Amino acid sequence: MMDTQQVQHKYELDHSNRKQELKAFDDTKAGVKGLVDAGITKIPHIFIASTTENSFKTSTSTSNELQIPVIDFKHEELQEDGVARKHIIDKVKVASETCGFFQVVNHGVPKEVLDDMIEGVRRFHEQTHDVKKEFYTRDGSRKVRYFSNFDLYESKAANWRDTMICGMAPDPPKPEELPTTCREIMICYSKHVKRLGDILLELLSEALLLKPKHLEEMECGKGHVLVSHYYPACPEPYKTMGITEHSDPDFFTILLQDRIGGLQVFYQNQWVDIKPVEGALVINLGDLIQLISNDKFKSAKHRVLANTIGPRISVACFFSTYYYPSNQVYGPIKELLSEENIPLYKETTARDYVLYYNSKGLGTPALEDFRL
Questions:
Q1: DSSP character for 176?
Q2: Among 164, 132, 170, CA closest to 146
Q3: Is-above-0.90 flag for pTM?
Q4: Where do the structural domains in the chain lie, given as residue ranges?
């Protein structure tokens, strides 16, 4: 076991040779948590973000004027085609057209399931390195994998987080392929968010004045992936980011976050905190729904700040089919087009879009490159 000074020295031998530093970090298969466990007091150079990106102290809104809407789904009322359902759809429509983010409560996922999912992710990331490293890979064809920074070798600066990804639909892994530390809760949570995802597709369809099953029939909810992030406490949080500012390359994301906070959305030209709400799930729209809605709905930039408290834990469920072969082509929905509202984007498959998005590295916008 190396002492703190040896670990610090190992990652800062040669700042000019970034690839060497990245490979040295990657080869440990211990992620950011491995650095923290070794007791480092200064973050390695590969994690230091630009001055512009780290200027969040003066750019964040702390006022009560700008807040992301919290929508009460009143689960039983969603089943009825009446005034209450229309009121919920109207709120979803306004949020989708403006900030692209909202939180939902009374969404049908039991609180104990939410809590167990957070704890399951914690157990995975805090188990012994010898067990955890067996899942460490950058092979995108693996349904279950653990790593630190999917774009480690493409990004300008690595982010202070580790990640476990599990492709859960339409072709889920065998139960024995899932980590024993969180196997049962992942299967359970996946079923719950799938049901919520189907409800959201109906509400988003109706918010676009389409028939309720329109987006479902376009296979927007056919696939989903659980992306579980672990953000250890950072000794120098003002020098790095938990996640660089970005938009998501999917149709929409259902996010479960713990109580620590740090998630922000760029709204009305400033960064706005998305404060944790007890029992709530965060919904954010992705690039593909902005594309198919022809800019009617917004895919907003968001980011996560590094913190000194840690570990922060979140579980993002991405709805798209990009992890599985699909010939489904997506372009602006024809029912939304007219002489006044002409197509604004080229057609693409979900998989091709994500491959292009990933090739640019997190934080480099991809959607504009598909604009006609």
A1: G
A2: 164
A3: yes
A4: 50-370
